[in-house]
């Protein structure tokens, strides 16, 4: 089991907050596998130390440094930089099998059974279920596969400009070849599904094993009020109208990541460690809890419609289930 690992990625201090919580949640649910995080040099030393308290391995990767011809071709495609960094997970050949998880995922139960699956196992994407969502997938590290993926990125690019498009083209038989490679949706439940199929969410949501905060606004963009154990915001703010999973994310931060950070002296070691002041201190020190208002620039309804049609619904914000329900209710009345 020492040669199997959960792997995540962060290219900056923001996503590192997500990685910390993901790693903590895996530990809270007693994984027996190793925890590895890929970082880039943009991640600060302070944040790297914080990651070391949770992960067994904190690796620094800089795909643009390689000098390999595929890389050089890709250097002219800076928008694929982050995609390339995720592909780097195939180069972790010290492990025989891995589960990659986006830094914006949160584990709600032990998911070590995923290691019984083969490459490439993943759950359907809620937006286009013939594609898999690349936020959670089982794979086998291999320099050969890594090279082939880089070549494909250089020669063909990605149909969505991100890693998901590329990986779906590369593992194109996923949709039809082997049903065992279709992970149950509860291993990658995106909050988007709450309103796109609410009865199913009500029936099966309680079995969720992994929540994926897919989309533009991430949990760390909100401010958490430890007093009320809730995500702070105006009650009518649609961004906080589905607080359960967001609250759980923050709860995992305060119980799983904060104590270690304080022990390390990375966060003010106030005796009131887990009280309001302690957590606020942690927020300011690690600049956690950015204001949701700054993260949500005004978008005209025409522009929102356009984004919706392109599959970029702001499901946690303006296009949240509660907002849509409110609108439907006004029509029904
Ligand atoms: N990521 C990162 N830095 C970025 C963007 C993305 O490290 O600036 C990593 C991170 O692990 C993240 C994953 O790439 O979870 C995929 O991006 P994201 O989760 O934002 O995409 P979504 O799931 O919302 O489509
Ligand atoms: Mn994601």
How would you explain this protein's 3D organization?
This protein has 333 residues and is of the alpha/beta class. The chain has a domain of 187 residues: Spore Coat Polysaccharide Biosynthesis Protein SpsA, Chain A (Alpha-Beta Complex), CATH 3.90.550.10. 38% of the residues lie in helices and 14% in strands. It is built from 13 helices and 11 strands. It has a 6-stranded mixed beta sheet, with helices on both faces. A 3-stranded mixed beta sheet has the order 5-9-8. Helix 1 runs parallel beside helix 2, helix 1 crosses helix 9 and helix 3 runs parallel beside helix 5. The longest helix is centred in the C-terminal third of the chain and has 21 residues. The radius of gyration is 20 Å and the shape is globular. It starts with a strand and ends with a helix. About 11% of the residues have low confidence. Uridine-5'-diphosphate binds next to strand 1 and helix 4. The site of uridine-5'-diphosphate has 14 residues, from strand 1 and helix 4.
C-alpha Rg (nearest Å): 20 Å
Shape: globular
Stretches where pLDDT is under 50 for at least 5 consecutive residues are: 64-69, 270-298
Q: Order of SSEs, N→C?
A: EHEHEHHEEEEHHEHHEEEHHHHH
SS-based class: alpha/beta
> What small-molecule ligands were found?
uridine-5'-diphosphate, manganese (II) ion
Q: Percent helix among the residues? A: 25-40%
CATH-assigned homologous superfamily of the domain at 4-190 = Spore Coat Polysaccharide Biosynthesis Protein SpsA, Chain A
In total, how many beta strands? 11
Question: What gap, in angstroms, lies between the N and C termini?
Answer: 58 Å
